[in-house]
Structures are given as structure tokens and as C-alpha cells.
């Protein structure tokens, strides 16, 4: 770790859990909620989202990156030189893209010190050198990036813009640190319509699963403890505070243009795959994880992959707005 790496000072140590008083305060303070919630999640985030750094996630991150690049993919450099990831979490996007050969040098940033620590730990485990030419990390928010003008070839992010209060200001700051002609790319953001059906499916799955697993024939082997369910409910309550936006693809593109970007395009993914993915993820959170083995994981992943292939065909005929995920890319003039 370098001198400016998070985790070296006591106040940056990730918190194992939020107290009820902290959760109460976070209801009225979005910035505090972002840090608290994501620090809290950093230790369990990979399990929650089935994040790994093997072929499965390398392929997933790489396909999502290429889909969002869209027509620009053909002319894109591989690797991009110096890349900055915003809201990197545990490093899912940029570390897997580096493994796929899309990126060379990576700086991972996040408002949560806990997340940056976990991402750097993964980078070390994957054998990436620390610092210049390898992977380094820093605690930073999108609207105040502690980097020089024009110091990156690529600024990227995954599932982060929907947490940012002022998306246009965030994108303007990303353009500032990009060299002229440099590219930004944000993927994995929820669409307005997609978020509606995902939440409805999640709520229905949670209600049915928690009821059924508390019936006598299932209780002992399938139910989660009351404490675990309470913890999930508290997390879900804070989630409602940190999830600030959903996007219409056209509006997201216009926001990027207003921020000063050019050559802006959007791409959307996951319709049928989201219809499977959200109930599956909710079911996994609602039952005793010991009951779900490798067979379940492969069923869920293969099913999701197959439906994703159908979605790619559907994306040629259906409007962008009906899909669950939207990504946006463009360049600095
Ligand atoms: C949903 S997680 C996504 C993490 C990771 N990119 C992934 O796809 O697994 C969103 C991340 O954005 C971070 N975040 C929230 N607000 C932010 C902001 N204003 N600037 C930078 N990061 C932010 C959170 O701390 C969290 O780690």
C-alpha cells in the first residue's frame, strides 16, 4: 500500500456493522449513508453479488464493457493505458477487465474505505503490482477526484452513478481528469422501468420465501435466523437511502452531453435475465445459505447466461428503456 492508500489510519478502518443510531442518522444524510452502508457491506459484498475473479466474472465484465463501448469497440485500444475506476467497490469491474486485457494501469477509488481495502486485497491476491503500471487505490468521491487534469486515458465505473446525488457534476469531474480524446464508460445502471419490475419481483420473492421457510417442514433446514433477517431488513432500509436514481437511457446520454462529453452512446442489457436474476438473488438472501450448493449456483448462472443470449436478440427489436441495465460512454473533446 502507498502512503495515500486507505486503511492505514484508525478512522478509515471498515466498520463491521452499523448501529441503529448510525442508521437513523444516515436517513437524513446521503453522503454518510453511502459510506456507512458500503463500509458495512464491504466484507460480504462479494458473496451477496456472487463476485469472483475467475473466468465467469472476467467474461461477464468483459462482455458488459464491450457492449457498452458499442460501435466504439472496434477502434478502442486494448489495453487502455491508465484507467481510473469510480465507485470500484471490491474491484469487480476493473480487476476483471485488467485480467481480460482491457486495462493496463488501474487506480481504484470509492467513497468507502472498506471497499477500497477489499479491492486492493484482491489486486494483491491476483498478483498485480502495487502502484504505477499496476493497481493502486484511494478513497475518493466522483465529484472531487484528487487527480490532475488530463491524467487518465479511461474513467470507468459499474453500478455507481445511481448513488451519485449530482450525476452531471460527477461526469464533468470525470471529463476533467481525462486526457483530450480519453473515454469514460459507466455500465450496470438501473433503468426506470427495469428497477420497477426488479423491485416488485424481489419483494414478492422475499415475502413468499420467508413465509414458506418458516413453515414447520422447512424451518429447521431452510430458514434464516431472525437476527439475520433483521440485519437484512436494516440493510434494505439503508439501501433505499443510497439508491438515488434510475435512468431513462436518453436522459442519461443528455446528462453526459451537458457535462461536456462528445460521441455519447448508451447500451442496455438484461430483460429476461433480470426476470430470473432478481428472484434468484432475493431467494439466496432469504434462505439458509448452507442449503444452496454448487448445483444451485450453476443452475442460476447457466439459466441467467441463456436468457442473456435471448436478451441480446431482443435488444435488436425492443426499445432500450425496457431492459434492466443501462450503460453510457463518450469521450472528452
Ligand atoms: C453498487 S456498488 C458497485 C461496486 C462495484 N463497482 C461493483 O460493480 O461491484 C456502488 C459503489 O459506489 C460507491 N459510491 C457511492 N457513492 C459514490 C460517490 N459519490 N463517488 C464514488 N463512489 C461512490 C459505493 O461506496 C459503492 O462501493
Automatic annotation (TrEMBL):
SUPFAM superfamilies: S-adenosyl-L-methionine-dependent methyltransferases. GO terms for biological process: methylation. The keyword Repeat does not apply. One of its GO terms (molecular function) is methyltransferase activity. Transmembrane segments: none annotated. Keywords: Methyltransferase, Transferase. Gene3D superfamilies: Vaccinia Virus protein VP39 (3.40.50.150). Residues 84-186 form the Methyltransferase type domain. Its EC number is 2.1.1.-. It comes from the Bacteria. This is Class I SAM-dependent methyltransferase.
Amino acid at each position: 500500500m502507498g502512503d495515500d492508500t486507505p486503511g492505514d489510519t484508525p478512522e478509515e478502518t471498515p466498520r463491521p456493522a452499523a448501529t441503529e443510531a448510525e442508521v437513523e442518522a444516515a436517513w437524513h444524510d446521503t453522503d454518510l449513508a453511502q459510506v456507512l452502508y458500503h463500509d458495512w457491506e464491504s466484507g460480504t459484498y462479494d458473496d451477496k453479488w456472487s463476485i469472483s475473479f475467475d473466468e465467469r466474472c472476467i467474461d461477464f465484465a468483459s462482455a458488459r464493457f464491450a457492449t457498452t463501448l458499442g460501435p466504439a469497440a472496434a477502434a478502442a485500444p486494448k489495453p487502455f493505458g491508465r484507467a481510473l475506476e469510480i465507485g470500484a467497490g471490491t474491484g469487480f469491474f476493473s480487476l476483471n477487465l485488467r485480467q481480460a486485457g482491457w486495462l493496463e494501469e488501474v487506480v481504484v477509488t470509492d467513497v468507502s474505505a472498506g471497499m477500497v481495502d477489499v479491492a486492493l486485497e484482491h489486486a494483491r491476491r491476483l498478483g498485480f503490482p502495487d502502484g504505477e503500471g499496476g493497481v493502486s487505490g484511494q478513497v475518493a468521491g466522483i465529484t472531487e477526484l484528487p487527480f490532475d487534469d488530463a491524467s487518465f486515458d479511461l474513467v470507468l465505473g459499474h453500478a455507481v452513478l445511481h448513488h451519485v446525488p449530482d450525476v452531471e457534476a460527477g461526469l464533468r469531474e470525470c471529463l476533467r481528469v481525462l486526457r483530450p480524446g480519453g473515454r469514460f464508460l459507466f455500465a450496470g445502471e438501473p433503468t426506470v422501468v427495469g428497477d420497477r419490475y426488479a423491485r416488485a419481483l424481489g419483494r414478492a420473492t422475499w415475502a413468499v420465501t420467508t413465509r414458506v421457510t418458516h413453515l414447520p417442514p422447512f424451518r429447521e433446514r431452510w430458514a434464516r435466523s431472525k437476527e439475520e433477517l433483521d440485519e437484512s431488513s436494516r440493510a434494505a432500509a439503508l439501501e433505499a437511502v443510497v439508491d438515488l436514481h434510475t435512468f431513462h437511457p436518453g436522459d442519461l446520454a443528455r446528462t453526459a452531453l451537458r457535462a461536456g462529453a462528445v460521441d455519447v452512446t448508451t447500451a442496455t442489457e438484461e430483460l429476461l435475465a433480470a426476470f430470473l436474476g432478481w428472484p434468484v438473488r432475493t431467494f439466496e438472501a432469504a434462505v439458509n445459505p448452507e442449503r444452496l450448493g454448487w448445483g444451485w449456483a450453476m443452475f442460476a448462472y447457466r439459466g441467467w447466461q441463456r436468457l442473456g443470449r435471448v436478451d441480446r436478440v431482443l435488444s435488436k427489436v425492443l426499445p432500450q428503456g425496457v431492459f434492466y441495465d443501462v450503460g453510457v460512454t463518450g469521450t472528452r473533446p
